[in-house]
Each structure stands twice: as structure tokens, then as C-alpha cells.
Amino acid sequence: MRRPESLPPAAAPFLGFARLLRRHAFPIASEQIFSFMQAVTLLGPRSMSDIREAALATLAPPPDRRGEFEAHFRTYFYGDAKPSIEGEEDDETRVKDDRGTREEENQIARQDKGGELSSALEQLSSRDFQRDADGIGQFRRKLASALPARRSFRTARTRSRGTLDLRRSLSEIVSADGDIPSPLLRCRQIVSRKLLLLIDVSGSMKLHTADYLKVAHAAVQGADSAEIFTFGTRLTRITSALRIRDREQALARAAALVDDWDGGTRMGPTLLTFLSVPRFSAFVRGACVVILSDGLERGDHADLETAMRRFSARAFRLSLASPLAGDPRFRPATSALSAILPVLDDLVDGSSVGGLTDFILSLARPAPAASVIWKRVS
């Protein structure tokens, strides 16, 4: 789809409506937005009913959220006061893809007592990163060559050990008036696998999120392909912000994008929301996925277990880096960790920058599954 600035002014309301639905966690791909605009063009439109039918046909809201879709449509296009939406819950996960406006901050008292920092309550706040010295420059320089590699479907010219490049070879024969030159060969390129970092920014992780964001910035700068998301009570993509070369500017931009610093956490529902967005889900396929979280899921862990199984089925390697694993007494004994341990490739210490960067640089090396390692420890 074309960039927003290249679209005609008349298309802005339709793009804005699609973005509104995305902010309310409707799984809408860019291709669906383009189809919505095309449908409106084909219909005229002669009435608002035509626009509504085009939106229903192309944006395809789930049946159980049809009422919510209708409410958003009337609010956006008719200017009605937002009605109460039947079945709407306070724990709905919102998605922010490097854009969006800040919501009103909830006035929730914080309690800084160990595991009590883990909750499902949403709390919006900002974060300011101060400049300090670190040693992750070497990590940034080594990362591209250290990540696992795969054979791409794209090919490149080679002098040996390749397959015949028939098109170029025939072209050379024609150019040489029928003489048969040395055969021209091509081989499939070797490329690094994608790196996907999912960073928990809830209150129970606030002592580590600043370091994790610095590692994430180095990953985006050093890897051929890296994607960074934060999650707490919301899901935010911050990759574009971290592409800024200056680290302090990049982290300041990322801090402004994320609305749910140091609040509650809904790990399972948020990861399921990630997988429900087609463009985000595509980042997982064949990638090295590292989730930076303590894994403290309050309440039912069924959503977390479902999400992790789906991640494991699509990813090349699925890892959980928990700062709690730095304690020698730590065991994955909670119901949530026990449920997801069999699908994890790694459960490692995420309490220090050095340990985390060393682990990421070792992703290309095989290792026993997490369940095998922790069974020995127990």
C-alpha cells in the first residue's frame, strides 16, 4: 500500500478508520486497508451504507466483535458519542505500531514489593533514559555474523559449486555467435535469520527494561533483520524508533511511543494479540524469538500456553530470558512456567546485559532443550 502522504486527501478518513480499528486490536493487514479503499471507490459511494458494507466485506471483523465494530463505525463517521459496547472488557490488549496517541493516564498506586509488582492492571506512564556507559558495542559488531543462517531462495552469481544459470548462459552463447563459453553458475544466498525481541515493560521488570532497550537498539543496528516489540498491558512496535543511529535519541523516541511502562502485565493475551496481526505474525516465521520477561503471569495461564505453542511452531528458536533465572535458587516451578517449559528451546538468565548479549551471540550453536537442562538442575 502506498505511503499515507501519497494518498489523495479523500482517502484519509478511510485510512484513519482502519487505524482506529487496529488501535483497538482488530487484526487488520495492510492489504485489507487497500481493499477497503478500492471497494469504496468501486461503490461510488452513494451513501454511508455503501462505506459500511465495504468495511464489513474487506476489514472482516470477527463475528463476536461485530457490535464493537458497528459502535466504532458510528463514532468515527457519524461523530456519535462512544456508546457502551456489549462484551467490551477493561483487559483488552491494544496494539501500537510506531504510531498512535497517548491515552489518559490511570491513577493507580504502585507497590514496589517483589512479585506483587506483577499484576493485570493497566498503568500508563513515561520513561526517561539517562546516558551511561555500557559495553555492548562489541555485541553490535558481532551480531550479524553470529546469528543462525539459512539458505535464501534468492540466488547470486558464483564461479563454482552452483547450478547452471541457463538464461545468462544462453545470452552469452548468442552474444558469442554460437560459441560455447564456460558455463555461468548461480547459487542460493546464505542470509542471517531474523531476530525478534519481545520486551516485558511491566512493573515487575522495571529494573531491567532500560538495559533491555539498549540491547535492543544494538540488535537493530547490528543485525541484518531485527524486530523489537514491548508488551505489558499493550503491545507496541518500536523497531522504527530504534533505527535511529544515536542511541539516546532512539531510546527517547521509544520511550515516547510506549504508553504502559511499569504497569501491569497480561502476557498471554498480549502475545496472542501479536499473533493475530498477520504482519506481526510473519515476523515469527523462521526467526530467533527471544522473550525478555520474568514470566510472572497472574491468573489463568491458558492463553500464555497457547501463545507459546504457536510461537514454537513457527519460530526457528524460542527463548525466554528471565532475570529471575540469575538466582541459583530459581526453579521454573510456577504453573505458567511449568506449562510452557516443554515448548521452550531456552530458559536463560536475563539479569545482566553481559549474560543476555552472550546468549544472543550463541543462538547459532545447538543446545539441549530448556526442559532437559532444568530437569537436570532440579
UniProtKB/TrEMBL annotation:
<feature type="compositionally biased region" description="Basic and acidic residues">
    <location>
        <begin position="93"/>
        <end position="115"/>
    </location>
</feature>
<dbReference type="InterPro" id="IPR011195">
    <property type="entry name" value="UCP010256"/>
</dbReference>
<feature type="region of interest" description="Disordered">
    <location>
        <begin position="82"/>
        <end position="117"/>
    </location>
</feature>
<dbReference type="InterPro" id="IPR008912">
    <property type="entry name" value="Uncharacterised_CoxE"/>
</dbReference>
<dbReference type="InterPro" id="IPR036465">
    <property type="entry name" value="vWFA_dom_sf"/>
</dbReference>
<dbReference type="Pfam" id="PF05762">
    <property type="entry name" value="VWA_CoxE"/>
</dbReference>
<protein>
    <submittedName>
        <fullName>VWA domain-containing protein</fullName>
    </submittedName>
</protein>
